[in-house]
Amino acid sequence: SKKRGLSLEDKREKMLQIFYESQDFFLLKELEKLGPKKGVITQSVKDVVQSLVDDDLASKDKIGTSVYFWSLPSCAGNQLRNVYRKLEGDLQNRKKRLAELVEQCDALKKGREESNEREEALGELKAIEQKYNELKDEMGQYADNDPAAFEAMKKAIEVAHAAANRWTDNIFTLRQWCSNNFPQAKEQLEHLYNEVGITDDFDYLELPATVPLGPVGDQMLAGNP
């Protein structure tokens, strides 16, 4: 069967063995020669050693033009002790935060203990909220009868009414002008008027009694837009 390759952790352990057994300083090219003897292929040595450096399990330094790597058993011990201290500090901080949250939770519970008075108050609150929603829905049904909305609609009707009658006045003026200037074309003009809807019953519009003419309509009928 095909032999399974080493995992990253296995490779790290093998490279650490090289450092610990010799307790010496190495150039990268030297480690690349020693790695295969431990089962770490040459192409992986650089990345594995760099991962050890990143985790403070190995050290490197430049001396002159060369970069040396080394690791002593004490390095691993120091690194583990640093990790332990950090984890211990994190644990204490989280315990303190937990105690603060428990204290806040207890403070928020005060005054909210289950009781008959609390149940009654909650019931009244729910009833008030329900009544509020009902009144809100009822107000929505009467929105069309809102005085402000009615007044706005009345003004819009007045403006439209005044504009329509202003154009009616313009049409009567134009008909009179055509009659005065083209008396010989009276029949043709009458035929044209009927085609476009200007018949004998064509006249000014009147507002219903429920929409009395206001200042806006008065001004527009007087020729003031």
Distance between the termini: 100 Å
Strand order of the largest sheet: 1-3-2
CATH topology of the largest domain: Arc Repressor Mutant, subunit A
CATH architecture name of the largest domain: Orthogonal Bundle
State the low-pLDDT regions, or none: none
What is the rounded Rg? 49 Å
Instruction: Compute the number of helices.
Output: 8
For the secondary structure, the number of strands is: 3
What string, H for helix and E for strand, traces the elements in order? HEHHEEHHHHH
Overall structural class, as computed from helix and strand content, comes to mainly alpha
Which helices and strands occur, and which strands form pairs?
Elements (H helix, E strand, L loop, with lengths): L7 H15 L3 E2 H7 L7 H13 L4 E5 L2 E5 L2 H37 L6 H26 L5 H35 L4 H10 L19 H7 L4
Antiparallel strand pairs: 1-3, 2-3
Subcellular location: Nucleus
Family: Belongs to the MND1 family.
Pfam family, one: Mnd1
Characterise this structure:
Residues 149-205 form the Leucine zipper with capping helix domain. 67% of the residues lie in helices and 5% in strands. It is mainly α and 225 residues long. It has 4 domains: 8-72, Winged helix-like DNA-binding domain superfamily/Winged helix DNA-binding domain (Arc Repressor Mutant, subunit A, Orthogonal Bundle), CATH 1.10.10.10; 73-113; 115-143; 147-196. A 3-stranded antiparallel beta sheet has the order 1-3-2. The mean pLDDT is 79.
